[in-house]
């Protein structure tokens, strides 16, 4: 039998070892590919880079941004050239409420830390979107608290608008009510308003390393970098991942020593 030939046995074991190491390298590279990236969206840069003049609430990302300065300025404007989206479709949002939507848009346009949640999408205006970003519970709760007295006419802002005027308007028979009518809980707001772009994190808060902050103090560093790395390294537990390759190599080592 060929397994009884020492030289051949050694060659087989070394070959398997090489394949295992290549699989681990592939898995690690797969995780790295999800870090420091920009999605293929309407206004995103091809790759992140320094942007010294990012505007106001987008400024935390200036050291490494997927948005330009002009995009950051437009993110603060109603019905801007970005998407012609009118946040005040049922009257002006309170300043505190509007601030959360600006933060949300800055995160979407500027952050290079959303790679683990980027998904391909069949759309006329973008090729990728984000889904199920684990939003820190404080961010979700504050968003809801600050917006519950502002008014809207829909629970899903991604689709179903009347665009006949060139900007979004409430559909016929869609009545304006306080946010709390369409979004009775923080989770319903964070998860439904942008078609599951966010997943409301009930277990993890700021500082946990397991949820994304919508905004942060750049003087304290970007906490979302560590969060993206955590999810990138723990994603795709397939045959090429470290989690599967390491046990394989552990079993292979005794055979190598015997060969």
TrEMBL record:
Residues 1-27 form the signal peptide. Residues 37-213 form the Folate receptor-like domain. The keyword Disulfide bond applies. It comes from the Eukaryota. The keyword Membrane does not apply. It holds the Pfam family Folate_rec. Keywords: Disulfide bond, Signal. PANTHER family: FOLATE RECEPTOR (PTHR10517), FOLATE RECEPTOR 1-RELATED (PTHR10517:SF14). Belongs to the folate receptor family. This is Folate receptor alpha-like. It comes from Monodelphis domestica (Gray short-tailed opossum). The lineage of its organism: Eukaryota, Metazoa, Chordata, Craniata, Vertebrata. The gene is LOC100015543.
């Amino acid at each position: 039998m060929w397994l009884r030939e020492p030289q051949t046995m050694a060659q087989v074991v070394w070959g398997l070892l090489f394949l295992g190491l290549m699989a681990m390298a592939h898995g690690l590279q797969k995780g790295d590919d999800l870090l420091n990236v920009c999605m293929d969206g309407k206004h995103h840069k091809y790759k992140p880079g320094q942007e010294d003049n990012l505007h106001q609430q987008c400024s935390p990302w200036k050291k490494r941004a997927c948005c330009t300065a002009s995009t950051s300025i437009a993110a603060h404007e109603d019905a801007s050239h970005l998407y012609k989206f009118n946040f005040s479709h049922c009257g002006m949002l309170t300043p505190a409420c509007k601030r959360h939507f600006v933060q949300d848009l800055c995160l979407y346009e500027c952050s290079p830390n959303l790679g683990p949640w980027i998904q391909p999408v069949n759309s006329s205006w973008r090729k990728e979107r984000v889904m199920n970003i684990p939003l820190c519970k404080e961010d979700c709760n504050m968003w809801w608290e600050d917006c519950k007295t502002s008014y809207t006419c829909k629970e899903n802002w991604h689709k179903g608008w009347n665009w006949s005027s060139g900007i979004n308007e409430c559909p016929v028979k869609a009545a304006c009510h306080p946010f709390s009518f369409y979004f009775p809980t923080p989770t319903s707001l964070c998860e439904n308003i942008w078609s599951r772009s966010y997943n409301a994190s009930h277990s993890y808060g700021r500082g946990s390393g397991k949820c994304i902050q919508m905004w942060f103090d750049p003087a304290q560093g970007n906490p979302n970098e560590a969060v993206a790395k955590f999810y990138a390294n723990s994603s795709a537990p397939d045959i090429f991942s470290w989690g599967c390759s390491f046990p394989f190599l552990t079993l292979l080592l005794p055979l190598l020593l015997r060969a």
